[in-house]
Amino acid sequence: MLYGVDLVREQIRIAAGLKLSFSQNELIARGHAIECRINAEDANFAPAAGTLTDVALPGGFGVRVDSQIYAGLQIPPYYDSLMAKIVAHGSTREEALTRMECALRETRIAGVNTTVDACLAIVREPLFRVGGVSIDYLPGLVALAAAGS
């Protein structure tokens, strides 16, 4: 989304023995993108198995969803709990985060617990919005949420 390059097309070209259709110095980042991984997990990030009873994924300008889920899908406890990746792009970080917040509010997945609410809490958090976080951010946010519940 940031570079305007179709990575799958480029991978197919390479597999066919062709070179990349661009050079490194031709790549120019445009805007900001953020990705939220929607997992079948409970509030403590433990896997949540079950059958999806309702699925509505977001869309619109600047939003991409990579997923294969549908109502009736059985989510087993044995594999990676990733159900969807939602990516939002904007000309600025704030625009990307606002699009992500809207996309997460539009996301409806019923039948198993998901990380949608956790992702929504993170993108709404003021310190995260300004980019003032480090690797220690998420454990602190989870501890704070647990203390408040």
Radius of gyration: 18 Å
Strand arrangement in the largest pleated sheet: 1-6-4
Distance between the first and last residues' Cα? 37 Å
CATH class call of the largest domain:
Alpha Beta
Largest sheet composition: 3 strands, antiparallel
How many β-strands, per DSSP?
Answer: 7
The mean pLDDT is 91
Number of domains: 2
- State the order of secondary-structure elements, H for helix, E for strand: HEEEEEEHEHHH
Brief summary of the model shown:
With 149 residues, the protein is an alpha+beta fold. 32% of the residues lie in helices and 21% in strands. The N and C termini lie far apart (37 Å).
Commentary on this structure:
There is one protein chain. This protein is an alpha+beta fold. The protein folds into 2 domains: 1-30, no CATH class; 31-148, D-amino Acid Aminotransferase, Chain A, domain 1 (2-Layer Sandwich). Helix content is 32%, strand content 21%. The termini are far apart.
How do the helices and strands line up, and which of them pair or pack?
Blueprint (H helix, E strand, L loop, with lengths): L6 H9 L16 E8 L10 E2 L2 E3 L6 E5 L6 E2 L6 E9 L2 H14 L1 E3 L5 H9 L1 H4 L7 H12 L1
Antiparallel strand pairs: 1-6, 2-5, 3-7, 4-6
